[in-house]
């Protein structure tokens, strides 16, 4: 009997770990899709990835809603030429996922070349079974 209980507990824990790693994998894929959409400015992809309730915070303190975020990237007002992500971690808790990473980018906002070195926190939320970017906050780092 004791072995049966241990086996059942182990099976349940394995299923939970498997489900969580599935969500973590999905969030990593979506974060990569977002990176590519930010470079390309693909309006449809940006709209599909972002929640209607998106709060997108820049390192300058500027906050954008979904419409402003999509417009800035799709019109190239905010123009990323390259984005590299590193030191990424993903935590999933129920219908919420938190992604932390370092973003290094080459930009060309307003035709002026620049570089960005930022710490980023993304919050993804599962809405009707689909993960959407709910919030993003950036902060400047030096190195």
From TrEMBL:
Species the sequence originates in: Pedobacter hiemivivus
Pfam families: DUF4440 (PF14534)
Secretion signal, residue range per the UniProt entry: 1-19
Keywords: Signal
InterPro entries per record: DUF4440, NTF2-like_dom_sf
Domain DUF4440: 27-133
Protein name stated in the entry: Nuclear transport factor 2 family protein
